[in-house]
Amino acid sequence: MVFESIPPGARGFRLVYLAVALLGFLAASSAPTPLYHLYQQAWQFSAATLTLIFAVYALSLLAALLTVGSLSDYLGRRPLILAALLLEIGAMGLFIVADSVAWLLAARVLQGFATGMATSVLGAALLDTDRHQGPLVNSLAPLLGMACGALGTSLLVEYAAWPLRLAYWLLLGLFAVLTLLLLRLPESVSRQRGAWASLQPALSVPVQARRALWRMLPVDIAVWALGGFFLSLAPSLVRETTGSTSNLTGGALVAALTLSGAAAIFSLRQQPALRVLRLGTVLLASGVALILLALHSAALGLFFIATLVAGSGFGAGFLGALRSTLPLAEAHERAGLMSTFYVLSYLAFCLPALLAGFMVRHFGLIATSQVYALGLLALCLLAAFGLFGQRSAATCSA
Questions:
Q1: 302 within 8 A of 294, measured Cβ to Cβ
Q2: Could you read off the pLDDT of 57-91 as tens digits, one per residue?
Q3: Domains along the chain with CATH numbers
Q4: Which residues form the Major facilitator superfamily (MFS) profile domain (predicted)?
Q5: 102, exposed or middle or buried, with CB in 10 Å at 0-12, 13-18, 19+?
Q6: Phi, psi for 86 (deg, rounded to 5)
Q7: Cα–Cα distance between 11 and 218 in angstroms, integer?
């Protein structure tokens, strides 16, 4: 049961706390991206190992979503937020002491489980707090968080000491503060029976949301597959193609993708969901086509222009997918549907990138990236057939 009445003052604090927490978890998720080439130089591992390090994070996140993703519907939001924060603090500690690939893998596994738990419970808590602002914050915070994590780490690597550790110390401090502030966070869900049964891995999609889920799925897959590529192989691709050696390049590239996505979300937040999905499809396809052109021209500036266009499609597609499905769930179905949404999204986030990492060994990074881009274009074409065939936006509007 969701408590319907939260005092206005408590509601404001709650909304800010949940947004900052979600932003922090996603910032931590992208923090290692600008460091991958430094890890590679220090420990001499391949592109396949790099994508494995990336993929174990996403697979661990999926494991969390499939098991504890809806647990907060039964135990309450606060206990699950606390558990996620403590696990994330442990992950930051592993990153700080990491001196080999094995330590890095362990840190990413623990971080993935913490993030999976957090995205589900924080997303559901945001919807509890505000049915109108909740989907918008759920859309903006992850993108802004990834931008802060990637760009912030790049700046620390370029201009500060302890390049492989300072970002993790700062994030550890943030999560420690959030843990203390959790004492002030009012609970929004009463306990109910069924907690143990909810741990059985399952995907939960309410009947009323299934049609919308299938309609948005090709766009969502393309969006997250693009994100997975940018957080794993794109920085290496740009360095190899253009010859750039700046430590800022990788973080700036991820920030360009996510910030343009956040800008698209904010500017389109009042538009009907179907219209947003359509625009996201067009922008994503255009951006990927420009990425192919940048690959052939080896122009760093064109890479960033292409990323801005693709990022706008990333944001529009993400917002349209969220707004066309999540508001259709009832209160007791929100965490379960949120978990299912992220399970599908993170499968698209990690599996194509992992496959690409192994393809690099046989075909090279540039050829693999070209095939990857063509696959994204094919998904956009498939999405266009479904989305532009709709007669009205009314059935998809949130």
A1: yes
A2: 988 988 888 888 778 878 888 999 999 999 999 99
A3: 8-387 (1.20.1250.20)
A4: 12-392
A5: exposed
A6: -65, -40
A7: 35
**Cα diameter, the chain:** 60
CA distances (Å), origin 143, targets 68, 314, 327 = 23, 10, 20
pTM (2 d.p.): 0.80
What the block records as the tokens of 62 is 């999926």
Whole-angstrom distance, CA of residue 277 vs CA of residue 279 = 5
d(Cα 164, Cα 245) in Å, to the nearest integer? 17
Of 11, 304, 305, nearest in space to 137 by CA: 11
Contact 68, 338 (CB under 8 A): no
Instruction: Give the tens place of pLDDT for each residue, 335-360.
Output: 677 778 878 888 898 889 889 988 98
Closest-CA residue to 258 (of 155, 143, 145): 143
Cα(22)–Cα(141) distance, rounded to whole angstroms? 6
Beta bridge partners of residue 189, listed in sequence order: 2
List helix spans (H) across 31-132.
Answer: 36-43, 47-68, 72-75, 77-97, 101-129
